[in-house]
Amino acid sequence: MLKFGVPLAILLAGAAAPALAQSTAVKPETKILHENLIVLDPHFDTPANMAVKGFDIRQRHEVIDGSQVDYPRMVEGGVDGGFFAIFTPQGPNTKAGNDAARDHALMRAVVIHEMIARDDDLFTLATKAEDAAPIVQSGKRFAFISMENGAPVANDLTLMQTFYDLGVRMMSPVHFANNALADSATDPKGPIHGGLSPLGKQFVAEANRLGVLLDASHASDQVLDQMLDLSKAPIILSHSGVRAVYDHPRNVPDRLLRKLADKGGVIQINAFTGYMKTTPDNPARRAALAELNRTYGNPLALAADKRDAYREARKAIDAKYPAPQANMDDLMAHILHAAQVAGKDHIGISGDFDGGGGIEGFADITDYPALTERLIAAGFTQEDLAKFWGGNALRVLKAADEAKAK
């Protein structure tokens, strides 16, 4: 999807004009092309940062402080918006545990709405795929809302309507651990339901009734398989990788990639080192970071006079105990394999930013144009990039809404 419908030839001819402000080392013509696309990321964990006292999304922050998304960097990276996630850590699979999850999720929804209301000169809430382009044309960034982990509604699926009324348009049933709805891909205890529970199957049906886009990231293979069978609308994997490139249970096997595409769905390729390559454990680094956290607390909540000291201490740890990271070559390997197996109409990208994502060369949202340049070099066309950066995700969001009417 293009912002202004400018043909590629005109875009490239425009590269001779004065260069736009460069956030990354990309060619001027790449920057122009990228800026002309509607660029969205379907999974920002930024609301967790927004809940920290003193965090201001209007201000530029630093990756070293634990922040990868804010308004100045959205502008710099040519990012028009995304899905801001109501993430709820998985607690006990009990009524009390699910009640606590419900309360957490409601408060996180409040945080998102407070940001949109406070910064309404910068952001507008989006609830339909068709909202994105007009919001961009108005000069603002669009903010969709998603729910990562279905535990907040596990005691009472009528709460799905409540969250829908709060603007949630994408929901996933499960996260790192099994819950009352579904098996996780990564629960060390293994599956307990054999996929979706009976309640989880009702969750799928209710999402279809409401017009909510179903997200199967973090779900087990059996859950993804069953969701594809049961859902009357295409589904999305908002931040996942491919298992043929790196064998990890969070990643998707080719069989299910093909089935996802056959059902009209989309996989948004994740930029999370742990799901892209094997990295050795580093106990000394973990211990040093734990001591740093004990000393300073949350870096996003630090007083200004302590910020420089924290950053110097963190840089010293990174220099002494470097953490191996995946890089752009690893990310491209996942993208190219997914494009080959699922097809260009069924892929996209998510940095999983502010949620553990970020790799060498793709550290925060200012690096999106650099990925565009790699994609152009790999042979992707402007039409492909328009689908990849937002068109495919908006298509399945629209399909979920249209399925409601049927």
Automatic annotation (TrEMBL):
Pfam families membership: Peptidase_M19
GO molecular function: dipeptidase activity
Record's keyword annotation contains Transit peptide: no
Top-level lineage group: Bacteria
Entry keyword set: Dipeptidase, Hydrolase, Protease, Signal
Signal sequence, renumbered to the chain: 1-21
The keyword Magnesium is assigned to this record: no
EC number: 3.4.13.19
Name under which the protein is recorded: Membrane dipeptidase
Source organism: Phenylobacterium koreense
